[in-house]
């Protein structure tokens, strides 16, 4: 079997089963585990999958930069943002993460909502500039341009004084075993800290993020109470999350 054929079979199996195990692939193809690991390493280098101990998971296409993500399923993200915006009650303190879906959340907040929005995203803050009934707290720090959010020591220190009712978290990967993940280590630390400063975490996840993983884990799936997905998301993608006790809201 040619290497290219073997790699395509690996990708086909990954799409079908949601994960692959190096030992199983070795037996199925009649090649050594070293050969399989080389295939996985090369596929990971091409961005086709995410390697994990013993095998691989689907790689999230949501790991592209902010500008690139704006064109991915924008209708679905608007629906998710609209549904999430309705979850913020008057008087609450809500942390809103960065990213294109979070911008949609901000865009759909009622103009007369009286609440406090905490964000480390300049894009979200600008979106809320005309919402005069809202108190907007912008956390500063080093600008991580990929996601257009503030990260680093200054951002973490500012966050230390905040206790929120709810945190709306953006991710690039949602996987029942690999948990919530993102493509940058420092951003993963920031998201974990934001979750620690809120009573409840709600994850916003368009379809391309489900059953996928990125390099840096944020938290286990059970760290979130709710995952908001688009209305027509296949049940096969959400059932494993519900089995872990997570509430699925279809936008």
From TrEMBL:
The keyword Repressor applies. Residues 3-58 form the HTH deoR-type domain. GO terms for molecular function: DNA binding; DNA-binding transcription factor activity. It comes from the Bacteria. This is HTH-type transcriptional repressor GlcR. InterPro entries: Carb_Metab_HTH_regulators, DeoR-like_C, DeoR_HTH, NagB/RpiA_transferase-like, Tscrpt_reg_HTH_DeoR_CS, WH-like_DNA-bd_sf, WH_DNA-bd_sf. The keyword Manganese does not apply. PANTHER family: GLYCEROL-3-PHOSPHATE REGULON REPRESSOR (PTHR30363:SF4), HTH-TYPE TRANSCRIPTIONAL REGULATOR SRLR-RELATED (PTHR30363). Pfam families: DeoRC, HTH_DeoR. Gene3D superfamilies: 3.40.50.1360, Winged helix-like DNA-binding domain superfamily/Winged helix DNA-binding domain. Keywords: DNA-binding, Repressor, Transcription, Transcription regulation. PROSITE patterns: HTH_DEOR_1, HTH_DEOR_2.
């Amino acid at each position: 079997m040619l290497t290219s054929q073997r790699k395509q079979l690996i990708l086909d199996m990954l799409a079908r089963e949601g994960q692959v195990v190096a030992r199983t692939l070795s037996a199925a193809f009649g090649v050594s585990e070293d050969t399989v690991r080389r295939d996985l390493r090369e596929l990971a280098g091409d961005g086709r999958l995410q390697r994990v101990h013993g095998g691989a998971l689907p790689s999230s296409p949501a790991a592209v930069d902010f500008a690139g993500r704006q064109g991915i399923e924008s209708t679905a993200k608007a629906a998710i943002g609209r549904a999430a915006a309705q979850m913020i009650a008057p008087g609450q303190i809500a942390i809103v993460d960065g990213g294109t879906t979070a911008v949609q959340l901000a865009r759909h907040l009622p103009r007369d909502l009286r609440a406090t929005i905490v964000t480390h995203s300049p894009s979200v803050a600008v979106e809320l500039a005309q919402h005069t009934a809202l108190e907007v707290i912008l956390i500063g720090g080093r600008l991580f341009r990929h996601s257009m959010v503030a990260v680093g020591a200054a951002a973490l220190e500012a966050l230390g004084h905040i206790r929120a009712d709810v945190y709306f978290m953006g991710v690039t990967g949602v996987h029942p075993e690999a948990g919530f993940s993102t493509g940058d280590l420092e951003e993963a630390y920031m998201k974990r800290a934001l979750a620690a400063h809120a009573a409840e975490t709600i994850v916003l996840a368009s379809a391309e993020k489900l059953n996928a993983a990125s390099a840096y884990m944020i938290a286990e799936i059970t760290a979130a109470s709710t995952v908001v997905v688009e209305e027509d998301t296949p049940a096969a993608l959400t059932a494993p999350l519900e089995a872990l006790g997570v509430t699925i809201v279809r936008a």
